[in-house]
Design brief:
Blueprint (H helix, E strand, L loop, with lengths): L17 H12 L4 E5 L11 H14 L3 E5 L9 H10 L8 E2 L1 H20 L3 E3 L12 E2 L1 E2 L2 E2 L9 H6 L1 H18 L1
Parallel strand pairs: 1-2, 2-4
Antiparallel strand pairs: 3-5, 6-7
Length: 183
């Protein structure tokens, strides 16, 4: 398992969190005003002290003067999407029936809910991508407008990432205003 994108509060863990610490140095030195954090959070919540380290990381970034946005996990289909889509196309099946249910998503991500609530309370903005995936069958679909949204069982395709553009546009517009006012 890869390490979560978090800082470590004490010297004992400093080496393990060096990438996050380098990122914070860059944020501070370059006066970066907006930070978007994304990861497969449900893969990390069982890691020792993950919750404390994530909160510490967000607090540290906020103290640097940056706004922090944390993207919740995108829905995970639970199967290898390209293969499943291909098989369903070959058999003439309805692709809108492929996906995961909101309750499956909720069950998988429930342990992170408390952490996201705490991040919101300390000043981070938590972004929820799920509404972009819901289809007419009430599933978090893997195909939308004829485009496959995943390149494997959990990573978004280019089209899947583009689906989230409307969620990020206001953030990027804010960044343009913040950057131009800095000059």
């Amino acid at each position: 398992m890869m390490r979560p994108p978090v800082m470590y509060a004490n010297d004992e863990w400093q080496n393990k969190g060096r990438h996050a610490n380098v990122a914070l140095d860059l944020i501070t030195q370059q006066h970066i005003k907006i930070v978007i954090m994304a990861a497969c959070w449900n893969s990390y919540f069982l890691a020792p002290q993950f919750k404390e380290r994530l909160i510490f990381t967000v607090q540290t970034i906020l103290r640097s003067g940056a706004r922090v946005y944390v993207l919740k996990d995108v829905p995970r289909p639970g199967f290898y999407v390209p293969q499943e889509v291909s098989l369903n196309v070959m058999h003439g099946k309805d692709l809108s029936l492929l996906g995961s249910t909101p309750s499956e998503y909720s069950d998988l991500n429930k342990p992170m809910d408390e952490i996201f609530d705490q991040l919101s309370k300390i000043g981070a903005t938590v972004l929820d991508p799920t509404t972009y995936f819901i289809n007419s069958h009430g599933l978090y679909g893997v195909v939308k407008n004829g485009q496959v949204l995943y390149r494997d069982d959990n990573h978004l395709s280019v089209e899947g990432a583009a689906l989230l553009a409307p969620m990020f546009e206001p953030i990027f517009q804010t960044n343009i205003v913040l950057t131009s006012s800095r000059r």
